[in-house]
């Protein structure tokens, strides 16, 4: 075990996978000489050279499309898109290219690329640098979307993503990079598509990913003071979704709060609610509660931004309401 | 002259161009009978580009093409039957009927795909070249794209990166004068799109796209250069789309005079005239008859092939366990 920041855990995963497999290479804006604006790729260009760690021009559309075909022709690219807000520029490559070829070419191509990006609010970055666009990505068939919340999962899931033969969008969070946690030593792989129970509880289940898991754990602490036992499930993977973990937890607590930092309407929380209806309706004692961003742009000024972001207090309030 | 195809190579190019012409005419006839499904984008009159450009490629090289890619599919070595069966949605199609005529691929043959998002083939070939460079492979990627695709934003992004990193990619611009119904001079700020190559520090050349030998020479030289690690280049092949955008095109925007002028310069005629200097008339007639017979046989076989059965693709399952 070693105490590591989330960003350092990602860096370790990249270093280990690049050392083990010469077909793994990285490209993205500012990732080489500078080491990435969030320092995730620090030192990797020095270690692996300029062919395998490439600083790119500001060309997200073509870069994403190039990751798709590079992956189909013998390499395992890891592309960094600096902000999730830039994902709309990558969408043709994801929706019309990456998602279709395995199926329409009758299973004859593999597409082992990872698109790393980071989203989320709370840092004063404004309306074009703060969004979580999880649902837009998780909507696309044939692409995995994961969002680890801890340094250990960040490392183990990035290693799993690089070794996966399907495209994986790997969602990080700008406010998680400096979070420290214990990371197991060695070649530890955390399988994609498996949720983790972070806190056992019996009254209400809180489901979240990424930074919202941190808020859900805080909410569970607040609820404990209210005399309520909350279970916290870190979904870790948005697609494929560990629906069994969801059903198992709801079968115990009969109450569910789903938390997502994206917009509410047609959002990932809406998909979770519908999934719970599909698979666990008979276990529910109350409607599923959603905690999300309101359906509006993210403002800049601190009190405005903080007021709109989902947090522990809002999760607690939703849990209390569903238990009434 | 360097990079000139041998007589045998030219005869093979001619044979493939004939097959593609018969393929396109056969599709046109079947469309009239109501036996095709969805739009079909024919490349009649443009065969020299797709066939002669891919004739310079080696087995390990890769090519991406447009929604009008039949000549590239055949040029890069695909057989007629899987191509035709794919066009008719058959189980025996190159992609088991899932792709349709615009998105045909044969990964083993290096045809990594038709692409019906105009412009998307440009970064696609560039990404394959990136993969080749990272892995130190001695191969090249080729992108056959149109004058419509040349106007997309992604074209600029991909060409800049290709030239910046000296990627082994050859950009073959199949300038057929139209983007759907709109003529190139209404879409493009310049007549000769390849002058933009200079803006990326890439060499370029303009050739008669209806002259298979000219296409072969120019593309061959550019491919050799890319294979030597000297970076990408662009060949602009001037040609003409004789049969409209697709089978759904109602026409009316191409003048009879213009069509007649380009028909007089049919790539099949240009190649045949050139070949008569070295090949007996009897041999040419034999090749022509064989090409027609092969296409007729492939149509007959493909049209009687079975249709595929639908099944949910488990690789797309949104849940991590079967549900």
UniProtKB/TrEMBL annotation, chain A:
Residues 4-179 form the Transketolase-like pyrimidine-binding domain. InterPro entries: THDP-binding, Transketo_C/PFOR_II, Transketolase-like_Pyr-bd, Transketolase_C. This is Alpha-ketoacid dehydrogenase subunit beta. PANTHER family: PYRUVATE DEHYDROGENASE E1 COMPONENT BETA SUBUNIT, PYRUVATE DEHYDROGENASE E1 COMPONENT SUBUNIT BETA. The lineage of its organism: Bacteria, Pseudomonadati, Pseudomonadota, Alphaproteobacteria, Hyphomicrobiales. Keywords: Oxidoreductase, Thiamine pyrophosphate. The keyword Oxidoreductase applies. NCBIfam families: PRK09212.1. Gene3D superfamilies: 3.40.50.920, 3.40.50.970. Its cofactor is thiamine diphosphate. One of its GO terms (molecular function) is oxidoreductase activity.
Automatic annotation (TrEMBL), chain B:
SUPFAM superfamilies: Thiamin diphosphate-binding fold (THDP-binding) (SSF52518). It catalyses: N(6)-[(R)-lipoyl]-L-lysyl-[protein] + pyruvate + H(+) = N(6)-[(R)-S(8)-acetyldihydrolipoyl]-L-lysyl-[protein] + CO2. It holds the Pfam family E1_dh. It comes from the Bacteria. Keywords: Oxidoreductase, Thiamine pyrophosphate. The keyword ATP-binding does not apply. GO terms for biological process: pyruvate decarboxylation to acetyl-CoA. Its cofactor is thiamine diphosphate. Signal peptide: none annotated. The pyruvate dehydrogenase complex catalyzes the overall conversion of pyruvate to acetyl-CoA and CO(2). It contains multiple copies of three enzymatic components: pyruvate dehydrogenase (E1), dihydrolipoamide acetyltransferase (E2) and lipoamide dehydrogenase (E3). This is Thiamine pyrophosphate-dependent dehydrogenase E1 component subunit alpha. The lineage of its organism: Bacteria, Pseudomonadati, Pseudomonadota, Alphaproteobacteria, Hyphomicrobiales.
């Amino acid at each position: 075990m070693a105490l590591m920041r989330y960003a350092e855990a990602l860096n370790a995963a990249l270093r280990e996978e690049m050392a083990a497999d010469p077909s793994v290479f990285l490209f993205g804006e500012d990732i080489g000489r500078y080491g990435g604006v969030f320092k995730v790729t620090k030192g990797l260009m020095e270690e692996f050279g300029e062919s395998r760690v490439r600083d790119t021009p500001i060309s997200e559309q073509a870069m994403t499309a190039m990751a798709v075909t590079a992956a189909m022709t013998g390499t395992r690219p890891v592309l960094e898109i600096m902000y999730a807000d830039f994902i709309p520029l990558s969408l043709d490559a994801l929706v019309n290219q990456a998602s279709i070829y395995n199926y329409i070419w009758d299973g004859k191509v593999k597409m082992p690329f990872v698109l790393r990006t980071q989203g989320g609010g709370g840092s004063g970055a404004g309306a074009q640098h703060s969004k979580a666009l999880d649902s837009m990505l998780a909507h696309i068939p044939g692409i995995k979307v994961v969002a680890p919340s801890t340094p250990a999962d960040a490392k183990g899931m990035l290693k799993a993503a690089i070794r996966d033969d399907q495209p994986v969008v790997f969602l990080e969070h700008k406010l998680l990079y400096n979070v420290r946690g214990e990371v197991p030593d060695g070649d530890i792989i955390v399988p994609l598509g498996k949720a983790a129970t972070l806190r056992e509880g019996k009254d209400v289940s809180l489901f979240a990913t990424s930074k919202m898991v941190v808020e859900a754990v805080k909410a569970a602490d607040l609820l404990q003071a209210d005399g309520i036992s909350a279970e916290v499930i870190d979904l870790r993977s948005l697609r494929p979704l560990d629906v069994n973990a969801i059903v198992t937890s709801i079968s115990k607590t009969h109450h569910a709060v789903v938390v997502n930092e994206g917009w509410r309407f047609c959002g990932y929380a809406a998909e979770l609610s519908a999934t719970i209806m599909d698979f666990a309706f008979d276990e529910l004692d109350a409607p599923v509660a959603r905690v999300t961003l309101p359906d509006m742009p993210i403002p800049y000024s601190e009190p405005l931004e903080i007021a709109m972001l989902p947090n522990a207090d809002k999760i607690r309030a939703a849990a209390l309401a569903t238990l009434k | 002259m360097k990079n000139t195809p041998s007589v045998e190579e030219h005869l093979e190019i001619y044979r493939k161009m004939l097959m593609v012409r018969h393929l396109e005419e056969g599709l046109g006839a079947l469309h009239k009978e109501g036996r095709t499904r969805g739009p079909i984008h024919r490349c009649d009159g443009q065969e020299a580009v797709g066939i002669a450009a891919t004739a310079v490629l080696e087995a390990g090289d890769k090519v991406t093409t447009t929604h009008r890619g039949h000549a590239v599919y055949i040029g890069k070595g695909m057989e007629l039957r899987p191509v035709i069966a794919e066009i008719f949605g058959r189980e025996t199609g190159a992609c088991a009927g899932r792709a349709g005529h615009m998105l045909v691929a044969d990964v083993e043959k290096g045809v990594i795909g038709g692409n019906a998002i105009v412009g998307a083939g440009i970064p696609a070939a560039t990404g394959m070249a990136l993969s080749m460079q990272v892995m130190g492979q001695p191969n090249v990627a080729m992108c056959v794209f149109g004058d419509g695709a040349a106007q997309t934003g992604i074209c600029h992004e991909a060409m800049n990166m290709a030239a910046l990193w000296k990627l082994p990619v050859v950009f073959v611009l199949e300038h057929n004068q139209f983007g759907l119904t709109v003529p190139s001079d209404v879409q493009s700020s310049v007549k000769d799109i390849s002058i933009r190559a200079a803006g990326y520090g890439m060499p370029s050349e303009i050739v008669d796209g209806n002259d298979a030998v000219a296409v072969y020479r120019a593309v061959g030289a550019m491919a050799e250069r890319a294979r030597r690690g000297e970076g990408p280049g662009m060949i602009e092949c001037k040609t003409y789309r004789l049969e409209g955008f697709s089978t759904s095109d109602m026409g009316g925007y191409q003048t009879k005079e213009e069509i007649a002028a380009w028909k007089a310069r049919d790539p099949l005629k240009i190649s045949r005239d050139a070949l008569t200097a070295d090949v007996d008339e009897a041999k040419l007639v034999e090749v022509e008859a064989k090409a027609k017979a092969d296409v007729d046989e492939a149509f007959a076989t493909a049209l009687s092939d079975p249709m595929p059965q639908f099944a949910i693709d488990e690789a797309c399952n949104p849940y991590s366990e079967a549900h």
